[in-house]
């Protein structure tokens, strides 16, 4: 369970003042472009989350906003170890002046296995948020990657809320109970639109096992949710993979996204696992299914 008795930071966060819509898309920056942003908007999604540490100049999100009419663009996430807060703040203000209400800054701490500078992660997040405060980046336009109770509380106290990654509706429910009704919870959910269970599970396992089941932050979170070593090693049990990667036809996948909303999320961003040739058809199919809900 996500239990933490320490009081939240004394600085109060703010509710997000941007309407993300109920559903969004998470995609690695290498697979995104202004043209892809247009496809995501046409498919009916409210937000696109740019994954895997976008550059601090935020040129890609700015170009994607410019190419669309109403799509919200968010970073998911800027890595605090590799991009300085001052650079991010300057880029944020440039976009906010040009496109008011169209951009959300998502930041996060990364992983000790991949970031050589990783030390005092909680204090590093606090210090980074302090710089954003001094630079005038409003709490109601920024969110924090969070899994465990301490960082979830920090997200609620210093930003508009949390963007959990690689979680289940059970985690969403516990996070909502922990941080209360007002802060944002925008949960990422991997999906495979394929009714062949073995094929879909194999694709999900390929994505989850390496790197995520090799990273301490995610392993610790899954153990807090009750998953055992036998589920985690070496490449994830079938039950774990099925919990982390919703698969089936578009209607079944849509139901898996709604499960997070029912558990207390405000917004769910689908990470569609598909080959390049299959991605846009899957995007459109999922958008159609969600549009009927």
Automatic annotation (TrEMBL):
Domain Luciferase-like: 35-135
GO molecular function, one term: oxidoreductase activity, acting on paired donors, with incorporation or reduction of molecular oxygen
GO cellular-component term (any): cytosol
Species this chain originates from: Kribbella flavida (strain DSM 17836 / JCM 10339 / NBRC 14399)
Name of the protein in question: Luciferase-like domain-containing protein
Classification via Pfam families: Bac_luciferase
PANTHER family in the cross-refs: CONSERVED PROTEIN (PTHR30137:SF18), LUCIFERASE-LIKE MONOOXYGENASE (PTHR30137)
InterPro entries, alphabetized: Bact_Lucif_Oxidored, Lucif-like_OxRdatse_MSMEG_4141, Luciferase-like_dom, Luciferase-like_sf
